[in-house]
Amino acid sequence: MNTACAPRSMADFQQRFARALMADSPELDELTRQPGFAVYRNTVLKGCMDALQAQFPSIVKLTGAAWFDDAAAIYARQQPPQAGPLLLYGEKFPEFLTTYAPAQALPYLPAVARLDRLWSESHVAADAPVLGAGDLARLASHEQALATLRLQSHPAARWLWDDALPAYTLWSRTRADEDPGRDLLWQGEGALITRPADRVVWQPASRAACAFLDACAAGHTLPEALTHALQAEPDANPSALLATLAQAGALTLNATQVQTT
Fold first, then answer.
1. Cα–Cα distance between 55 and 52 in angstroms, integer?
2. For residue 55, what are the domain limits?
3. pLDDT of 74-114, one tens digit each?
4. For residue 90, is it left (φ>0), alpha (ψ between -120 and 50) or beta?
5. pTM tops 0.90, yes or no
6. 238 and 121 in a common domain
7. Domain match, 221 and 118 both
8. Which of 64, 76, 191, 209 has the smallest C-beta neighbourhood within 10 Å, fewest atoms?
9. What's the DSSP call for residue 162?
10. Mind listing the pLDDT tens digit for each residue in 7-50?
11. In this structure, are 89 and 154 located in the same domain?
C-alpha cells in the first residue's frame, strides 16, 4: 500500500462526501446510492434548517414556518456549514434574502435578518468594562487628553442604520410578539443592540449615533468621531449622544486610558 497517497485520498473523500450531502451530481452517485445516505443527508439538512430558525426567529414570524423552511433549505445547500458548532450558522443568510426570489415582495426582510444576526453576535460576544457616566465626567475634565482619546465600541455592541426602511420597528415588535405593521411609518431607522448585565437589550438609534459608533470602530479619535456624527446628523447634541451611548453600555475604554486621563 502506498501510504503517501492515503491522506490525499481521505481528504478527497471527505470533500466529495461534504458536497454530496448538499447537492446531487452524477460524479457523486457512488456515494449518494449508499444505503442510509439519504437519511444522513436529511439529518444534516434538518440540523442546518433548525439552526437557521434559531438564528432568525423574526424572519420565521414574519414569513411563516413553511416559507422559511423552503428558504432555509435552499440556503443550506448553497452555504453548507464549514466546521464547528452551528451556534452562529447563517452569516450570509441576510445577503441571501436580497436575491431570493420569493423575498423580493418583502424588501424589509434582509434588514430584519441582519438585526436577528446582530442579536446573536451580541449574545456570544466577549465581555468588557462598560464606559459609564462617571468615566465620561472624568474624561471631560481633561480637555487636552480628549483631543487624542479613542473610545471603543463595546465588544457586545451592535448597531445598524437603514436609510429607507423601518427595520428596527418591524424587528423589535416581532421580537416582542406585537403587531409589526401597526401604525408603521415607512422611513429610515437605526438600531442599537447591547448586552449590559449579561442580557441582550435593544433600543432605537439615531443616524448620528450609528455614525459615531462606525467612527469609533474605525479607530478615530473622539473629536473625529463626533465630527462624523454631526456630518450625519447636523442637529445632534454631542453631549446627549455620548450620554445615551454610555447609558446603553455601547462604549468601552482602554484601561490604560482610563487610568491616565
1. 5
2. 1-105
3. 999 899 887 767 888 999 999 999 999 999 999 999 999 99
4. left
5. no
6. yes
7. yes
8. 64
9. E
10. 445 555 455 555 555 555 555 555 556 555 555 567 778 999 99
11. no
